[in-house]
Input
Amino acid sequence: MPQVTIDEKGCRDCSLCVDVCPTEVLVRSDARQLAEVARAEDCIGCTSCVYICPSRCISVEDFVGQRPFHRIEANRALVSRFLQQQPPSVELGETDYQEALADVRVRLKALGDAVTETMGRGQKAVGRAAGGQAAAHLPEMYEESELGEVLQRLRRRFTGSFEFEATVAAGDQQVTLRFPTCALRHAVTSQGDQVGKAVLCDLFHEYWAGLLGAFSNRSFAVTMLDTERECTMQLTVRA
Output
């Protein structure tokens, strides 16, 4: 059965989750001025409350999310064959890549500044939410349920930008990610920020926690083990 929890310290008493819940699992407490879980047994795991919460303080666990079958590679190939159309491809040269990298660095700087300006210290919640959203757009990951295989596919997807080595331990309860090559490091240092301390780093670390959490229906806590030589993070399932 889905388990709904609310981090009361983050609740703003906006009542959006109460209004959106289709089975009235959540109610607003006038006395405490926050949302409460009143009928947990009625939760259907739609996660509407999770996505609408502006504070990202609601979590739903112990449910099987709907897999985006329309984005799985095998199904895309079937549709392409049926329509007799293939997506166009363009060859890019070294100059194109360098121009793209310069553009990305500027955009990442603007992103970090915007998050700091609007969210203050809430950038970690933004990064985690972004990882959860991005998971739906990585179709090949949904063809596997084993965490080790998902990590192997992520390595192939991020080759050239975020190359990493992954170690899974404690019965899939702990994942260590080591990044020998990280494109974000260049973006951070070019702005004069310290690797591991910058807003972009916080966003990226939590992004990975949200990404793997979405694939495994778990909530991971992030611990940075090293940022000097190679960025190494440890993701541990929350108790």
Summary: The chain has a mean pLDDT of 83. DSSP finds eight helices and eight strands in the chain. The domain at 94-237 is CATH 3.30.1380.20 (Muramoyl-pentapeptide Carboxypeptidase; domain 2). The CA atoms of residues 217 and 237 lie 10 Å apart.
